[in-house]
Amino acid sequence: MDEVEELIEKLQKGSAEERAEAARRLGRMKDERAVEPLIGKLGNLEVLEHLVFGQKYIVEALVEIGKPAVEPLIKALGNEDADVRSAAARTLEKIGDAKAVGPLIGLLRDRNADVRWNAASALGEIKDVNAVGPLIGALGDKDMGVQGRAVGALGKIKDARAVEPLIEVLGKTDKSNRATAAWALGEIKDVSAVEPLIVALEDDDKLVREFAARALGEIGKPAVEPLVELARDPEKKHLRREISGILRKIDGEMRKKPHDFGCRERKVMEAPPIPREFERLVLRDVPKARVTG
């Protein structure tokens, strides 16, 4: 019996601590013989009782082994145990192999919400555009957590097809998902999200408002004129401080990359690079004198 076989035996018969150590060493050795025994422990209830010692090291070991573990892990996505399916999805997420995309898409229809959640998360990390359509479909999942994970995944993939569905999420009831949608729209940076994000600046939830402001700053120059117009509106005085912060962020980016901006935006750049002064100008004279001139 060689060292790998000895470690596999400890993985199967040892204490939680011994299994953890065996998993760590098997991962470092990257021996393909360890893949199936490690996968066999993914849903082991006794291991799950010692999560910090067992499951963590099993997943890490499979990730270290890498490519040889992908096909067996894909097979494990069809295991009858939901814990195994979830753990296999998490492991494939960390490995990041595009071969797993199709099977993970299939798991978005799994009967178990935790499995669907992990599948959406994995697809977001792998960032394959083939997952965009199915993830948009997952925005209608009956579980709010799965919906939120699909929103986040779409923000990571950054495909423009997700913009309209994400804008719809901004109008839904779950505040956590609204905040994630605002973040995701900022990642995609599509100009059509500007007006909905401006509306979200008045959301009831503070986190949604914060992410909407950040997203507008990420979108940059297409947001300048709508924000300036909003700042002029006497009925929106309560938003002026927030608007000023967003415009200062955009102004800073403009100054770093002036060649990326057109004439209209260069006029905004003429404002002094002092935040306090920029705020005074933006909220009073600059909208007319410098942006619309």
**Biggest sheet statistics:** none
Rounded to the nearest angstrom, the radius of gyration is 25 Å
- What is the general shape? elongated
Q: Please report the distance between the alpha carbons of the first and last residues.
A: 82 Å
Approximately how much beta-strand content do the residues carry? under 5%
Uncertain regions: pLDDT < 50 for 5+ in a row?
A: 47-53, 261-278, 285-293
What is the string of helix and strand elements?
A: HHHHHHHHHHHHHHHHHHHH
Helical run tally: 20
Describe this structure in words.
- The chain has 293 residues and is mostly helical.
- The protein contains 20 helices and no strands.
- Mean pLDDT is 86; it is low at 47-53, 261-278 and 285-293.
Task: Summarize the structure in short.
This protein has 293 residues and is an all-alpha fold.
Defining traits:
disordered C terminus, mainly alpha, about 290 residues, about 70% helix, single chain
